[in-house]
Specification:
Strand content: 5-15%
Shape: globular
Structural class: alpha/beta
Helix content: 25-40%
Strand order of the largest sheet: 4-1-7-12-11-8-9-10
CATH architecture: 3-Layer(aba) Sandwich
Bound molecules: zinc ion
Radius of gyration: 19 Å
CATH class: Alpha Beta
Number of strands: 12
Number of domains: 1
């Protein structure tokens, strides 16, 4: 049983709450027609609940809490262009600034961004340096949309990209990223698109490109380029996909890809916005589905990376349910049974069209790789 860890190192720092995304009409400016402005979806409260359920919930006794140094400019510069980081730093003292039409940046944001990236680096180093097998960075703002020179989708610095590059400077050669956030992990894809040593996998709803900040489509034909051809795997699932679709895609597409790649460490971009009540997602994953994803990540790590597994928080915007789904995920990751009742699971788990959708993803990928 030595390969299996039932301890979880959680990296957390309250300064991530200083990134104030304010209120408005969903994730933009307030509507002149509506008397009540709502919280921006990527707000501190969602992560306060995630922290709360880990600190007080059934897995609390499995957790060791850690902090980490803020990410240095040099570390962030391993993934990002220097000019882009300078622009971001120059905004630091500014008042609220919209980096994209949905992505605000305020006076506390730059420090929170560096703290967030530092937590991901801390979690990755913890595992890579053998201090523990499983680590999770409870961080915000999220990172997986941030490209080397571009802000996108609430993300400024690619926390996972920076963490992987820091590990590479310490001897890491091969890593696999499994991104099960409901949105395409386009920033991580972009950063490693020509890189044969980092396998980037994203399973997401089939939302396509969404404008200048997100030109990547997330389609199955984006397979990587040059030496990196084949080392990017996109799994765009149909809208309404639930537990069965996500778990089958993991078993039938993700697992064989990671097994063939043989990474030294497994990194999960752990969003919970594929949950059935997420304001930013149109998928139907329940706590049971997230528990299944966590179990599968653990199994893959046990088989391939001597148990080395790093999880980094991404999206997940349902203020209560995302926290429950995170808890279920981490129980799976720890090899524990799911112990909390799902407060609101009731949607049917339709599977019609699933066979065809999975087949099409694999056939598209195969035809592009054969070109
Ligand atoms: Zn997302």
């Amino acid at each position: 049983m030595s390969k299996f860890s039932e301890r979880l190192a959680v990296f957390f720092d309250e300064r991530i709450f200083d990134h104030d995304t304010d209120h408005g009409f969903f994730d933009g400016n307030a509507s002149p027609y509506l008397p009540v402005a709502e919280r921006h979806p990527e707000n501190a409260e969602r992560v306060r609940n995630m922290h709360g359920i880990l600190a007080n919930g059934p897995i609390k006794d499995h957790i060791d809490w850690h902090d980490a140094p803020v990410a240095s400019e040099a570390a962030m510069g391993l993934f990002h262009d220097d000019a882009y980081l300078k622009e971001l730093a120059a905004l630091a003292a500014d008042r609220k600034h919209w980096c994209t039409s949905t992505t605000p940046f305020g006076p506390g944001s730059y420090d929170a961004v560096r703290v967030s990236a530092g937590l991901a680096v801390g979690a990755a180093e913890h595992v890579w340096l053998g201090k523990g097998k499983i680590a999770y960075a409870l961080c915000r703002p999220p990172g997986h949309h941030a490209q080397p020179a571009r802000t996108d989708g609430y993300c400024f610095v690619n926390n996972i990209g920076v963490a992987i590059e820091v590990l590479r400077a310490k001897g890491l050669r091969r890593a696999a990223v499994i991104d099960w956030d409901v949105h395409h992990g386009n920033g991580t894809q972009a950063g490693f698109y020509a890189d044969p040593d980092i396998l980037t996998i994203s399973m997401h709803m089939d939302h396509g490109a969404w404008g200048d900040s997100h030109p990547q489509t997330g389609a199955a034909d984006e397979v990587g380029i040059d030496a990196g051809k084949g080392a990017n795997l996109n799994i765009p699932l149909p809208y309404g996909s639930g537990d069965s679709a996500h778990l089958r895609a993991f078993d039938e597409i993700i697992t064989p890809a990671v097994q063939a790649f043989r990474p030294q460490v497994l990194v999960v971009a752990a969003g919970q916005d594929a949950n059935q009540f997420d304001p930013n997602g149109r998928q139907n994953v329940t706590m049971a589905g997230f528990h299944g994803l966590g179990l599968r990540a653990r199994k893959l790590a046990a088989e391939l990376t001597d148990g080395k597994l790093v999880l980094v928080q991404e999206g997940g915007y349902s203020i209560s349910y995302a926290a429950y789904c995170l808890h279920a995920t981490l129980e799976g990751v720890l090899g524990l049974r799911s112990s909390l009742d799902d407060p609101i699971a009731f949607l049917p788990d339709h599977t019609h069209g699933l066979e065809a959708a999975l087949r099409e993803i694999l056939e598209t990928r195969r035809s592009v790789l054969e070109l």
